[in-house]
Amino acid sequence: MTFPRQRTMRLLLTILAVAVVSVGGGWLLSDRGNDAPSDVGTVTLSPSLTIADPTIGTNVPAAGKLFPSISLKNLSGEDVDFSALRGKPMVVNFWFSTCEPCKREFPALLAAAASTKGNVSFVGVNPQDTAVAAQDFVKEYASESNDFIYVRDPNGELLTQLGVGTFPMTLFVDAGGVIVSQHAGEITSAELATTMQKYFGVS
Length: 203
Fold this sequence. Notes:
Elements: H1 3-24, H2 26-29, E1 71-74, E2 79-81, E3 90-94, H3 100-115, E4 121-126, H4 131-141, E5 148-152, H5 157-162, E6 169-173, E7 179-184, H6 189-200
Parallel strand pairs: 3-4, 4-5
Antiparallel strand pairs: 1-2, 1-5, 3-6, 6-7
């Protein structure tokens, strides 16, 4: 008799699938609150599982794709049109305020932005926080200088189009709007300099 064994196996697979979704996509499925800090740079799923949903702790390969022509609001509520930023390279960083790796990498991002002297656009995209929470983070950990543009993506529109599922995430976009490289997890000053030199000719 194999039927009981088959039913048991199906039940186990169902439980496993639910567990994967709960762990991998917890930050989105948990009401997107700002209460508990996250010290997780990336979430790695079992290599035997292939999941297309961009909200379950994995990232869709982005290199070679055209960065979406999308308009999002900055922390002051003004529109920022990404298509208008084309014409020079761009570094786009995805972050949220209770993400510990995001806090640690911000000094490196700010230093890189300042070093390019306006020749590279730096944009921070926040999909989770309120405008007030994001502004508080910027005041404490980052900078409100002209070297860095901060926008919110509260509906996850850009997040979904790009297939971003881990935080922090940094994308490098050339002057023509094509994504040339992506970096999942905390990024260092050396990694920023190497990637910008390779693809943008600046460091």
